[in-house]
């Protein structure tokens, strides 16, 4: 059944939360990346507040919703994502529709734990690559090599097309539609990453000439999942507590340990701000020791 059509400009702060959030989810479908997630979250808010006027929402109302979602086992990060959708919807109405209401979500975001920074040692990486080379998943070895040497996300690699690989300039182009934050970035390629890509190109030319996909199956379709083969390789290599995304952390951790500045790492990872990159600052070689050594001569 098709959703009802709205005249968005006719909505007022006194309309129901159900109508307002349905309208906003329809706008998200037209204007935003990740609209499916926005629509799903809007439905949760609609179920909870129903016919309540938007203008009647208060901070205690939002707090009760947070407690309600906690009772259902959601993590702080998941709840924060949900309240960010409501906050964005109200801010949109204020800025675009001229609503004169305050945002009850303001200041209610939950404290987040430090991000995960599990990374491989060189010896662990060597074991993993050795096992992956023998895997029945013929793309796994090159997938891991590319991940460890570029810091690209899983989706960025699995959706990678040959037209965005430049062997001459030694870089990959990621347009905004391919990246998490919607911003274009170039990914520089070192020798190992280039070798992994040439290996995939040889496979493509032998099996499915002309296919646009870097990671593809023998039938020409793109590889959609690598999780099962990756977990098998981890088990055979004796590596615990490690996920695919942790290869991105490994890339970052290795570079910081070798003295690469955080500002350069930020650009390599495609972070929106240096704050996201600072989780790796503690790995910088001898940085804090050099700082306190400045005082050695003060009392000499």
Helices, strands, pairings?
Blueprint (H helix, E strand, L loop, with lengths): L16 H15 L3 H15 L9 H13 L4 H22 L24 H12 L6 H11 L3 H5 L6 E2 L4 E4 L10 E4 L2 H17 L19 H11 L8 H12 L4 H8 L4 H4 L9 H7 L7
Antiparallel strand pairs: 1-2, 2-3
Helix pairs in contact: 1-2, 5-6, 5-9, 6-8, 6-10
Structure description:
With 300 residues, the protein is mainly alpha-helical. The chain has two domains: 8-97, DNA polymerase, domain 1; 122-285, Intergrase catalytic core (hpI Integrase, Chain A, Orthogonal Bundle). 51% of the residues lie in helices and 3% in strands. The chain has 13 helices and three strands. The protein has helices at 17-31, 35-49, 59-71, 76-97, 122-133, 140-150, 154-158, 191-207, 227-237, 246-257, 262-269, 274-277, 287-293, and strands spanning 165-166, 171-174, 185-188. It has a three-stranded antiparallel β-sheet, with no helix packed on it. A hairpin with a 4-residue loop joins strand 1 (165-166) and strand 2 (171-174). Helix 1 (17-31) packs antiparallel against helix 2 and helix 5 packs antiparallel against helix 6 (140-150). The longest helix has 22 residues, at 76-97. The chain is globular and about 60 Å long. The mean pLDDT is 88.
